[in-house]
């Protein structure tokens, strides 16, 4: 849907010739669709930028949105979509800001009656469609990166590793464990073992609503990795129905210590370390 | 947005000796850092490369490795190709089984390496050689 | 070829691997250690892998072999300082390092060896000492 050089020039001419009227109507139509959620000044500035970058593109000859001449236009469009996405506008509200130009052009070109008018209008529409789609895509991209950022922040928030006692750390797991989160928990826990020099870790799953094979796999892998590093893990907070699922699924926890509550787990660890200190005392004696 | 190999600077390294296996590890490490793999993913792909490079040396009688960055528009990654013109693998399924070995190792080279990467492709013909392509993507 | 130095500290041999070892270097270390255990009569070996950014199946096998050899020569081997990323990768690789004792750092490793040694002395005139070991303590 590329414009020919003449068409591009005619579009630029049209936009330049009726500059004030175009911007006025364009701003009006967009303002109506956004129902006052963006200030007139802000809107006018955006329309102005779009308007002038379209003229620049048109004057430079053949206009295809992918061409080099349209670099500025693309930049303005992505800037517009990024802004709208961050301000919480919907994708259609954003795209309408571009599509509104069609209506403006129709009003302008109705008055004219040249040999090219109809052909021009179709060509211009094609370009505007392209611009709209481009806006839509950059809008979605911005949203996606926003969501990814938030997911990451959530991940950071939801996996605290706390020191319970000298040499004992605990991770209270809350909520559903998916693969990505389990991985973060695993790494965080193991790193804390190194940083604090703690030979014991308690993984408390009281807040985990369900345990499936995958979740169990992740927990098991963490325990094995911790052992490789020279630390022991205890799993606590296994609720009755989770114990039933574990057995029903045939998940083998092997020789991994499991305790009903965090308190039991801590007592278990303290007893273990107590035995060790006892032994050390005997040696010194 | 097309997927494709960034052919700008694929790095090649011959595998003819023990020291070359070390060089392959270092090369893969450098590229993994460049494409911003997480520390764990770096470790995984370097370990996989180490296993496969050793296989190329021990079973393939030496060969070539090529390390390149890849970009699928959303994520970047590292792609490594190991090629040798050795005897090839007779029974691929068996070779990919944990614990199977013909060379006195632990038998974790191929099967283990496959678990450490995101994409694993192996082409082999008896008497002609083996070509293994692995890819690890950033998260 | 590079050689990994072996230090003797009291009754313990300390090996701190600081380089990305070639397979040959690893095999050489295995030989050197066996000789040093016999020559010094040490009862403990600590292998510090804090500086290793990967452990593949070859190095893993070397660690297992060293542990077995030193066991035969009446010395306890403890591998210390494995990085989290390395441990995660080993699990994924399927390498369990069976029969190797591990500790978080050199200090804990020394405690482990001292404790094992103390056990042995206590049990000297009782039943056979429990020789079963796992990766955990």
Report on this structure.
The complex is a heterotrimer of chains A (285), B (139) and C (137). Chain A has 285 residues and is α/β, with parallel strands linked by helices. Chain A folds into two domains: 5-152, Globin-like, CATH 1.10.490.130; 162-284, Transcription Regulator spoIIAA. Chain A is 69% helix and 9% strand. Chain B is of the alpha+beta class. In chain B, helix 1 (18-34) runs antiparallel to helix 2 and helix 2 runs antiparallel to helix 4. Chain B has helices at 18-34, 39-58, 92-95, 109-116; strands spanning 4-5, 11-15, 63-71, 76-84, 119-125, 129-137. The model of chain B is unreliable at 1-7 (pLDDT under 50). In chain B, a hairpin with a 3-residue loop joins strand 5 (119-125) and strand 6. Chain C has a single domain, classed as STAS domain (Transcription Regulator spoIIAA, 2-Layer Sandwich), CATH 3.30.750.24. Chain C has helices at residues 23-40, 57-72, 84-93, 106-122, and strands spanning 6-9, 12-16, 44-48, 76-80, 101-103. In chain C, strands 1-2-3-4-5 form a five-stranded mixed β-sheet, with helices on both faces. The longest helix of chain C is centred in the N-terminal third of the chain and has 18 residues, at 23-40. Chain C is globular, with a radius of gyration of 14 Å. The termini of chain C are far apart. Mean pLDDT of chain C is 86; it is low at 127-137. At the A-C interface, helix 7, helix 8 and helix 10 of A face strand 4, helix 3, strand 5 and helix 4 of C.
């Amino acid at each position: 849907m590329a414009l020919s050089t003449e068409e591009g020039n005619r579009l630029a001419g049209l936009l330049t010739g009726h500059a004030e009227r175009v911007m006025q109507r364009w701003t009006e139509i967009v303002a109506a669709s956004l129902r006052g959620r963006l200030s007139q000044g802000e809107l006018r500035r955006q329309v102005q930028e779009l308007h002038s970058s379209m003229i620049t593109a048109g004057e430079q000859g053949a206009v295809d949105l992918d061409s080099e001449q349209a670099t500025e236009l693309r930049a303005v469009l992505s800037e517009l979509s990024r802004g709208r996405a961050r301000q919480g506008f919907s994708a259609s509200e954003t795209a309408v800001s571009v599509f509104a130009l069609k209506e403006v052009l129709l009003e302008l070109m109705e008055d004219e009656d040249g040999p090219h008018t109809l052909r021009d209008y179709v060509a211009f529409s094609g370009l505007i469609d392209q611009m709209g789609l481009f806006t839509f895509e950059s809008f979605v991209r911005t949203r996606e990166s926003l969501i990814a950022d938030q997911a990451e922040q959530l991940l950071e928030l939801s996996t605290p590793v706390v020191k319970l006692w000298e040499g004992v750390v605990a991770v209270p797991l809350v909520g559903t464990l998916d693969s990505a989160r389990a991985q973060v928990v695993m790494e965080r826990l193991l790193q804390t073992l190194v940083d604090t020099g703690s030979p014991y870790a308690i993984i408390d799953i009281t807040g985990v609503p369900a345990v499936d094979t995958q979740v169990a796999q992740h927990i098991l892998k963490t325990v094995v990795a911790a052992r490789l590093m020279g630390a022991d893990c205890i799993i606590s907070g296994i609720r009755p129905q989770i114990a039933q699922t574990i057995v029903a699924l045939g998940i083998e926890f092997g020789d991994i210590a499991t305790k009903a509550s965090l308190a039991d787990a801590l007592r278990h660890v303290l007893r273990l370390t107590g035995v060790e200190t006892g032994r050390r005392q005997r040696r010194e004696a | 947005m097309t997927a494709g190999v960034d052919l700008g600077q694929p790095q090649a390294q011959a595998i003819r000796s023990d020291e070359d296996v070390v060089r392959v590890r270092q090369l893969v490490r450098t590229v993994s850092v460049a494409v911003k793999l997480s520390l764990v993913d770096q470790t995984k792909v370097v370990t996989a490369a180490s296993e496969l490079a050793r296989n190329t040396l021990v079973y393939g009688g030496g060969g070539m490795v090529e390390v390149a960055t890849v970009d699928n528009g959303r994520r970047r990654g590292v792609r490594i190709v190991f090629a040798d013109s050795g005897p090839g693998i007779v029974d691929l399924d068996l070779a990919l089984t944990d614990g199977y070995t013909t060379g006195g190792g632990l038998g974790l080279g191929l099967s283990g390496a496959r678990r450490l990467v995101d994409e694993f492709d192996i082409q082999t013909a008896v008497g002609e050689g083996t070509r293994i392509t692995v890819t690890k993507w950033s998260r | 070829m590079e050689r990994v130095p072996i230090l003797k500290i009291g009754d313990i041999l300390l090996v701190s691997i600081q380089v990305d070892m070639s397979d040959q270097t690893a095999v050489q270390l295995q030989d050197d250690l066996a000789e040093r255990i016999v020559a010094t009569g040490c009862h403990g070996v600590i292998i510090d892998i804090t500086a290793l950014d990967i452990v593949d199946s070859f190095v893993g096998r070397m660690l297992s072999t060293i542990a077995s050899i030193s066991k035969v020569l009446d010395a306890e081997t403890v591998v210390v300082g494995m990085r989290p990323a390395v441990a995660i990768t080993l699990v994924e690789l399927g390498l369990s390092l069976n029969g190797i004792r591990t500790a978080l750092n050199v200090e804990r490793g020394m405690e482990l060896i001292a404790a094992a040694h103390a056990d042995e002395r206590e049990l000297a005139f009782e039943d056979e000492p429990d020789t079963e070991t796992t990766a955990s303590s």
